[in-house]
Amino acid sequence: MTAQYIVNGLTMGLIYALIAVGYSLVFGILKMINMAHGAVYAFGAHMILMFVTWNLGAVPAVILSVLLTGGLLVIYDRTILATLRKKKAPGIAALITTIGFSYIIQNGLMIAFGTEIKAFPALLGEKMIQVGNVKFAFSQVYILVVSIVLLVGLSLLIHKSKIGLAMRAVEQNSRAADLMGINAKGVISVTFFLSGMSAVIAALLLASYYQTVYPTMGVMIGLKGFSASVLGGIGILYGSAVGGIILGIAESLTVQFLSGAYRDAVAFILLFLILIVRPNGLFGKAKVSKV
Amino acid sequence: MNTYYGNIHALKGIDFEVNDGELVTLIGSNGAGKSTTLLTIAGVLKAASGSRIEFNGHDLTKLSPPQIVKMGVTLSPEGREVFPELTVEENLKLGAYCRKDVKEIKDSFDQVYELFPRLLERKKQQAGTLSGGEQQMLAIGRALMNRPKLLMLDEPSMGLAPNLVLEIFNLIKEIHKQGTTILLVEQNANMALKIADRCYVLEVGRIKFSGDAKEMQNNDEVRKAYLGTVNKKK
Lengths: 291, 234
Ligand SMILES: Nc1ncnc2c1ncn2[C@@H]1O[C@H](COP(=O)(O)OP(=O)(O)OP(=O)(O)O)[C@@H](O)[C@H]1O
Ligand SMILES: [Mg+2]
Description:
In chain A, 74% of the residues lie in helices and 4% in strands. Chain A is mainly alpha-helical.
């Protein structure tokens, strides 16, 4: 029985991990929380639904949604956030615009698609699989494989590629990055795009599993992803990912041993406890000081 | 060139030149505008309209910092500004960020490691955990990774113990001897004048004196103001 809950928790945890990584990427480079991330997730889900309804096929629908969602974030950054940075606006100004942006997105989705819960096609299949006494949906296997591939891929990109090195350079010292001839604007745009991409993939996986979408679907999962990210160590990719997995499994075990009603409360109590013991999150570290 | 910080007129029409193969030093007291001059050349600060900074026939005021780096104009900034959580190797790799000749970057690594063997020993160490002197070597090495045609060094001896200062100056001399044109900003005017060909003295945003480095060492006014009176005439 417990194995069943752990498998379900792991599934949910990987989705949280993908969302958490989206927050973490942007935070790493801009030291800013993109509160619109949950709404971006909902946007991605609706775009997939729209393209699938147009009979474009699942793969093109997902690719188009990634391009559109990533593009939306890049345009938002280039127009609003970049201007605020240029004018040296305080962090709080950027933060409130991201909250505003989340409502604009949700409002737009309500106008375009309606407020009601809509059916989402089971893009990842509906088959059930039984291993021993653990039962799971075939889509859970997809969630496992796709999210792990994406998380590992992102991590490799950041730690092994040239653009990843540039991202880390801008993150640590943007003035020095300028002197290396790194185009910080471009690097920030790439970061937002990757953040949008991870949200769309999370949306694809979870919407196919639950087979529903609605404009406010990103609110709670956005908050949970944010918490997971802080819990694991925001700005540190693997930390955020592990934070998501821990949160997912903890929630699932709560449902098993207490009741579904405690699920959200336990998630946040866990966050408090971990932060009290490790204020920078599980994998967060104090900065290496500059001599 | 003229440069402003908001309303503050930091560079008030300064005019100077560095010829191919020279080692020119820019000295002057705190706040004279030395760093501002280098940052303006690097394109990080915008020169006021009407300024002209010419490099091999190109007007740098019309170019972005990446374009200027690509032309071979590289600044090793005041205070080192290494990437603290990246390794020594990654810091050096970033110095070559704009280079397209990927195959030859390896040679530059070898050259930099030969010049600074200590960086080779510590290539996997985080830059923020290096000593001040090692960080300075890294900052200079990182600038060299761009294979600069003009290398600008802003106070490379700042905060270093006397024996390390000597080491750094010897290395700068060596880099110059290997054919790199250098514009050197220094508080340590005595040392700078010893290795430089020519010198400009900056005072509150204007060039006060200019001339041959050896003559400058013997100029009474300059010595009194910038070299300290304890310095004996050679
Ligand atoms: N970001 C800034 N905003 C406003 N004023 C500045 C700024 N940076 C420098 N200044 C001013 O411009 C003038 C020149 O500064 P600069 O840093 O170029 O001096 P410097 O010659 O390099 O001095 P030091 O030897 O102390 O490094 C100073 O009066 C300084 O106060
Ligand atoms: Mg200075």
